[in-house]
């Protein structure tokens, strides 16, 4: 029943907009159509609306919207709190500073203080207004608070009459110089600038007393009336334009008219909330968009405990709209909540090891994804006794996202919906309140109870493998896994990781050029520690007993460190070379002086990148070239000059 005006310059005139969300479903459940101003532009009862994006794609927008006025691609509306909103090409925005909006009739809006605002810069601001109506760009009608009814058509303003009780108005429609008013009582009155008496006074014409909705067609200004009995009628032409003379066939239980293009083409809402499209006597059900399918995307299907996982939910609707649905407790379930916890922001926190199924449901359609979460680090402790693998109860139950309570020499275990009671030395257990005989009895320990790993298989569905080489238990749930080490595992892993590098442990070296450590000081290798990345750190002890460490390096680099002679020396240089204190001072300071020999220069500056040798008159002249462009000249092995 709304008459709409398409103003191209609308958004150029409205500055300072605050954005609302687009493409987000606001609430779960089947939404109903409240109003429509285009076949694909719908207002829903949950405050969302559908519109068109570039005229081809349907998009859903949220904003707690209460009313709309516009067309398929742009328009204005009000929120339930009275803010003015606008949309264009699927982007919904709150118009800054426009609050207290009572009614919209695109491109006009009426505020609760009685002022009328428009995107038309040529229009003077109206005040003291109670009701407005517009007819695209042809006419604009307004009812003043003093009861005066006026219409502007093609820049001509006409007073049509007086309505004594402006609060009795339910709806108002305009077409050119004709205004139809629906009163709360059901009465419909037409005020027309072409219907006047002999004295030129406009004569109001009452059409009916039992209407629930009205609409004036934009083509000819014909009046459609939905009556209280659910039927729809139209007025006639010429002398019959002020009386109902035609009931439209097939329509019943109608309570609302919308998107009226002519008396032969419009939409009708029935008293059960359903809609029909009426076209020259043919009725077609017009349904609200419903979810046809869901798709899920995950940031990581194989996360580690402690990680945050994001699951994207996308719903495809019957109108081909694709909507992103935020995860919430209302639309997402986790079959093992001891593994994943839904956070307030819609992400999931991984809190346990195992496999769980996350199911999203919206619009009655469901889709699931499996998340396999593994332990970030190894657990302690496991052991093998007489071919039976045992694991410490508390750490593994906590890793599964469960809890453990000590009770009467035993433990009460809760993991998700599973409750298990064990007692050290007893084959009898309680599983979810029923007796269960174990394959092996749990073992008592000073700080905890060890349970047979077969419980993980029989009760929790895990696969358990004992790694005899590393003395550890490998537990898996599909692709989810964790490792429970024994007291021997660390030493075995270290030994396996060290491999041939173990031969360097216990040996002593003297620093040459390494990490700016004191040159020619003695260090002894006390350990070579592998890490999870396959790298190693060499641990040294200085002559003074201080512990120093290398940087992390590969096995190849460790071997090179000990063997290349550039970083570490395998001998005590002070014992190998009986040089004077003054010479050692120069060498240690990496200085070269006249009179030094080749060994001293090599010890001071290292090996040159190039050499040249010339013999003449019983003398051997040798020049050493260094990468720093420093040059040393020898005569018969003794430095005679340096160039720096």
Question: What order do the helices and strands come in, and which of them pair?
Answer:
Layout: H1 10-13, E1 17-19, E2 33-38, E3 41-44, E4 48-53, E5 57-62, E6 65-70, E7 74-79, E8 84-88, E9 91-95, E10 101-105, E11 108-111, E12 116-118, E13 129-135, E14 139-144, E15 148-153, E16 156-162, E17 169-175, E18 178-183, E19 188-192, E20 205-208, E21 211-216, E22 223-227, E23 232-235, E24 244-247, E25 254-262, E26 265-270, E27 275-279, E28 282-286, E29 291-298, E30 308-309, E31 311-317, E32 322-325, E33 332-334, E34 340-342, E35 348-350, E36 354-362, E37 365-373, E38 379-380, E39 382-385, E40 388-392, H2 393-399, E41 403-407, E42 410-415, E43 418-423, E44 428-431, E45 434-437, E46 443-444, E47 449-452, H3 454-458, E48 463-467, E49 472-477, E50 480-485, H4 489-498, E51 508-511, E52 522-530, E53 536-542, E54 547-549, H5 555-563, E55 568-569, H6 573-576, H7 581-588, H8 598-605, E56 610-616, E57 619-625, E58 631-635, E59 638-643
Parallel strand pairs: 38-50
Antiparallel strand pairs: 1-9, 2-3, 3-4, 4-5, 6-7, 7-8, 8-9, 10-11, 11-12, 13-14, 14-15, 15-16, 17-18, 18-19, 19-20, 21-22, 22-23, 23-24, 25-26, 26-27, 27-28, 29-31, 30-35, 31-32, 33-36, 34-35, 36-37, 39-40, 40-47, 41-42, 42-43, 43-44, 44-45, 46-47, 48-49, 49-50, 51-52, 51-55, 52-53, 53-54, ...
